[in-house]
Specification:
single chain, alpha/beta, 8-stranded mixed beta sheet, 11 strands, 27% helix, binds 6-phosphogluconic acid
Length: 262
Amino acid sequence: MSDITSGQSGHSVAIYHNNEALAQAAAEYFASLANQFVTQKGSFTVAFSGGSTPKVMFALLAASPFRENIPWQSIFIFQVDERCVPPDHADSNFRMMRETLLAKVPLPDSQVYRMPAELADHAAAAQQYSQLLRNFFAARKSEAAGPHPNLPRFDLIFLGMGADGHTASLFPHSAALHAGAEIAVASYVARLNAWRITLTADLINNARNIAFLAGGQDKAATLQKVLQGDYQPELYPSQLIRPGAGSLRWLVDEAAASLLAG
Ligand code: 6PG
């Protein structure tokens, strides 16, 4: 593993030999933070993105040695974004997370908060999830607020990055990029001709820890633009992710990092 600090406000970038090493490091990071926060405050709140990258990490977390060394009973799992399909649909991020992780670890179903993205009224689905998070975190007011004191503050948020520079379901030139201090919004993705529900950049930036996972040659050009290019968040929404009072680390593989300078 090699480490570089990018030009953009000192993000740390850890580079791993391949996708498997990247997933191993991500699983170790999750386990370390989960044990740290549960020891410190008795709970750990984490939001996961979907897509393909997290699958290998989920499989590691669901197996030995991670499975028996993580305090699942004290962890609360949320979603970063979801496709507007039923939870058993092949494209559902929740279905992927349920099959590769949730069904295999002793985490109570009551501690998993799924985005109701199957609702026909997408705005209502986003509002419902926003209220759920507001209620959940309001009951835990004791935790130190982040830069957006009126927004929930996650202990950890895992993000991916698309080859077009999107993260969560914050796609280039989409209205969701300008959601302001909302928690979650519905986002129409023209390129996909599809609706998504997504956490907003302000909500994500309020987290204590954010980890981007990005692997593969197809992301190399975009990763270089996101980390070392001009600040153009309409084109590269991943650049919106700049936590006000939290850590941001990129875990990437050598292929994705192949065009990074330094
Ligand atoms: C989704 C994800 C999305 C993902 C990126 C990267 O719903 O697809 O939440 O933001 O993180 O598209 O996807 P891959 O991991 O498949 O490259």
